[in-house]
Amino acid sequence: MTPKQLEVFISVVQLGSVNAAAQQLAMSQPSVSKILSLIEQQMGFNLFERYKGKMQPTPEANELYKEAQRVFLDRLRFERFIDHMRQYRVGQLRVCATPALALNLLPRAVARFRQTFPDYGIVADMCLNNEIEESVKGGRYDLGFVVKPGCEQGENQLIVSKGEMVCVLSEQHVLATKAEVCWQDIEPRELVFITTDARLVAMIAEAVPEFRQRQVAAIETNRYSIAINMVRYNNGVTIVDRFSIQGCDMTGLAVRPFRPALNVSVVAMSDSPGAMSQPGEEFVRVMKALMAETAF
Predict the structure, then answer these.
(1) SS3 assignment, position 38
(2) What is the value of pTM for the model shown?
(3) What is the pLDDT averaged over residues 267-278?
């Protein structure tokens, strides 16, 4: 199929009408019908059947639609990439990070980066931790900063900072008097559970099987920032990676090492199969420095 044929086919499937597809695509109805007929000739099977005034896709068309959507979206991404190259000939660096890092550290990192690359454009976005790797691999970003269990460095990955899971609680909490907080010290009803990343949840559960056996009365959230504010307003304690509290306002809160010790790291992920670009290397260097400065 040609790009136009793809567009017409997808529109008719989605809208269920040749007239509606023609209006959406700013085409005439005969032109849309002609393209559909040509596609059917090329495919060798019928794509639609009329049912109660609507164009009903055949089973073959439904299967074709799934692949057509993927190809169409890939083409759109490619066109955006060309537009990106055309518009930003000077250069642009696209960076994403976990919500906590994006809110608390990326703005400062961008300011420092632009001291070295003042003419470079920057895209700085927030992504869920478990979405960053695919976003970078898919070419939507040049760099991604993700929190991963352990401290291993892999292909196209560079460790930016090493740390461990910590317990966050009110300064007035009885456990704040301890140098470190063990799982056995925590009252299950008091724990604010964070469910944002299956890898980190699995890491905690492997060391503490009881972690998955939460009570019905437990508090759960998929955001570290919400969990920390829950604790701020006397809703017990929570367990987070230490990177999620860097740069946060911790007034009235205490941070204690959690035991058993659970190592985590912030990893910079690059879309480059070989060497990272010079701007990318500079941005990673800046993030390393900032994370060292703001570490607890």
Answers:
(1) helix
(2) 0.64
(3) 76
